Amino acid sequence: MKDDILFLVLPCYNEEETLEDSHRKLSAFLQNMVKDGKISDKSKMLFVDDGSVDRTWEIIAGLSQADNMVEGLKLAHNRGHQVAIYAGIEEASKCADAIITIDVDLQQDINAIPDFMAAFEKGCDVVYGIRNDRKSDGFFKKATASFYYKLMHLVGANIIPNSADYRLLSRKAARALTQYKESNLFIRGIVPDMGFKSDMVYFDVHEREHGKSKYTLHKMLRLAADGITSFSIIPIRLILYFGFLVLLYSIGVIIHDVYVYLMGKTVDGWASLQASIWFFGSVQLVGIGVIGEYIGRIYMESKRRPRYIIDEKTIDADKKEN
User: 22 is in which domain, residue-wise?
Assistant: First the structure.
């Protein structure tokens, strides 16, 4: 509706090559939505600079001075994609009726934004963006993505297959999200867990026009680990079950060894002994590593440190919550 204030939250990390072009496209698109009476003229683009080391913040600050639809938020240190999204949502929830998170490279089709708003107008507090396909992904990413979603469902995390961080949250849903206080954020798992009325919008993914993706394999693996450890203790249980199987196997080996001893047979056991030592040693190390991962996260949570620190922002300091 015409009175609905929409905020687009755009996390940025070293995106100096992308920002101006993305702003130009989004500005024209939002202005058309305002003219069509679909959103309020108070709607904004909120660029969240996740501790960039290039000219990203300088460009955002300049855009905010030239365009009253642009606001900027600069984090003092690189805290990761999920934290940048969270920081933008938390800031936007102070005055926005609806918040859409979208990557600043605009690979996610902005033409789906009116569909998000249409679902919001029908009473949905959460609208998930679902990829139509993965044609733009390489073989490795397609295979690992499919495996990852299956794994997440196996461990009990209720995430939406082929969903992305392209989603809409109402103000109510956004404020509910800010009540989740864990340090290791996995928003894709938290949002479905909140249980609000939801819908889905399907969108196409375009090739990136400028620069390179900052979402490296290491960051994807870290996100995957956050998702599994944030919503399930099944990995620890699997270690326990495997431990029982190994115990049963060990009992069988002991019985076999006692039988061989009593029968007076000699056994050349060097190879089997070596294999057993290496195998069970590696099992123990893996088990300790998984348990250590959980203990490490408990340690990080116990510190109660802030998720992020705001260095600068262009948003008016006296802006009041609605």
Answer: 6-231+306-313
